[in-house]
Fold these 4 entries.
Entry 1:
Amino acid sequence: MSNHNDAKKDKKLKKAERNAKKPAILFSFDGAVMDTEPAILATYRHVFAVHGKDILTPDNQEEIQRAPIMDVMKKYLPEEDPRRCAAEYDSYEQNHLIDLIQPMHGVRDFLIWLKKNNYKVGIVSARERSSVVELLRHTDLVTMFDVIIGSAGNLEDRADSILTACKLMDADTCIFITDSSHNIRAASSAGCFTIGIVSTGSRTLPMKESGADFLTKDFKEIKKLLEGEPLWLAYQVIQPEEKGKKKGRKADKKEDKPAEKKEKAEKQKKKTKNVKKEKAENKEIVEEEDEK
């Protein structure tokens, strides 16, 4: 009798897994979709040299190439206007090194497979959104993405941007693919199943320490993961407005002070505005590409 009941439970579980909604697939950009490392370092060398600085060393290269551009400019060129320096960076990269930036090995085939199998696919990046879109267009990849969010700076901003992307794609579950341990932490805090791309051995330990759920250097392995047991069903994206509902009556009993209420309302208003903005921007890209 017990074996019979177990078999029925297994059958029900497998059916539920088959009928489960597909997870959204989110990528960071640099090092996950595009191999930008050579261009990033060359561009920073140029900008630093223009300002009479020789800053890049083997010790700080990893930090510099993974940090948001504005943060790098503020830290290493504190006497300069960071916005002007960031503009110099973008201009030099786009005018001199854009052809050096190419898709990561295997990512194009993986994206084609994702779209063929009806996955919703997006990008959340610390880069300016316009830069991400320009590079995707240059390599004929822009139509592969349903949502593109840029300027996701610190850990909290990235987690919020990931949640925004999930909301735009109506996703209950999400798989986040990145080569950054910081992004792994942000995606984990948003409730995502996380995949770390380890293109070099030196990145394996930071990825493990950040708590990545799966490590690989091959997109074919990610495809196999998606075709196998749906491990991501154990993870669920929880939007901020849903957290109170999950807590039930206890959440209702606690009343915020007027100042806290105002602050929360402002934050929610800002997030709603950002969601609408991202929705409009992503709609523009789709319409432009359809016209072509």
Entry 2:
Amino acid sequence: MSEVLGFSSWASVAVAHCAGAHGLVLSHSQGWKLVYSGDTRPCAALAAAGAGATLLIHEATFEAGLGHHARAKGHSTLQEALQVANDMGAYRTVLTHFSQRYPRLPRGFPADARPWSQRPLLAVDGAVVRFSLLPRLPGLMPAVAAALEEIEEGDRQQQQQQQQQQQQQQHAE
């Protein structure tokens, strides 16, 4: 199978989540390396196994202020995931598995980070990331962040209008 797909190696790495949880490190004969964290706390073993990754896909369930929840539930904060990417020396990082409490861009997401190598990408359901586009993808993040902020602002305005209408109806009754 590895000859057909071109993988030169793969490793399942035990991560800090629940019993039996593993991350995955895939190395390809063309020289790229893909690392998938799965659900985990920051994990030195995964960072070591994935050293020099072309693409790290890491969960970032909680924002920084909720580190206590992340520790209690075996997940990572956004900032912890970025630190794993830095420790690993990952070329690009896609952050995923955001908590349902963040209907939009999580607070602290560094969409404008400098240098570009520290600007993560945001996973979106159904997205396909082509390795050939990795050099250019960080340039999209400021526009994505702005679009999500506009949607969030529109949602807030709609909620305020609905509340005002409900208050007006209550006063009319």
Entry 3:
Amino acid sequence: MVAYVSNKIAVNSTLGFSNVMGPVEEVQYDDNPVTHIIPTSQVNYMSMVVHFISYAGEGKLIALVSEEVVPDPQQFCQDCADALQLMKQAIHVFAT
């Protein structure tokens, strides 16, 4: 039943969010420093998958897109980065 419900949620989702914050400082795995966390997924039925993760005070934007839907993926990523900067500036203005 859990697998059925999980599958239905994933197949019928057009947008999903998680607000789990990444670690503020770099972590180690088996005495090796973890310098990057880059999430990805293989989703055959979606033309766009975007991940944003914060790790050690930095944000990473990862986009998997179909060039039929987004003809210029680099521009799409730059637009997302610009939008995040605008949100950051708005938060600073609102907080003061």
Entry 4:
Amino acid sequence: MSTYTMKTSLIFCIIFIFCFHQYFTLVVHSLEYDVGDTKGWVVPQSNASNIYNEWASKKRFQIEDSIRFKYGKDSVMVVSETDYKACNSTQPMFFSNNGNTIFKLDRSGYFYFISGVSGHCERGQKMIIKVLAIEEAPSGDGNTPGSSGAASISCSCIVQMVLLVVAGSAGLL
């Protein structure tokens, strides 16, 4: 194979790797959580009425994550904070009773979930989920409280530097 063909192939590979890496660093990585883990969405035992809020407090939910509710003869609703506190199921913002509900967390802030079956919410089948806001990158001017102004090297930058070194050592630059 000629030197020109090898250089062209190497350049193509470098561009492909760079584009592939950039694509996957831009893709939002979302997770799906099973509410209640293996127990699912059921009425808690009388001594565990806070089980769902304890479960949710151990997670770090992000925008675009999903939560899956698995249940039998029951339902799941998203309600306002006021309706959550009162276990009021008359004005849900979201309702499902298909036994396998996936709910996408599409914004930051709080989501309030309750069972729509009479008496279940009062017995603890309810949950608050806090979805974290997307953090803005500091401007780097050193004026942001708590920022040192020091530059950080991202994985993307490291990959770009490695590609430049490889291209340079192959005589492509």
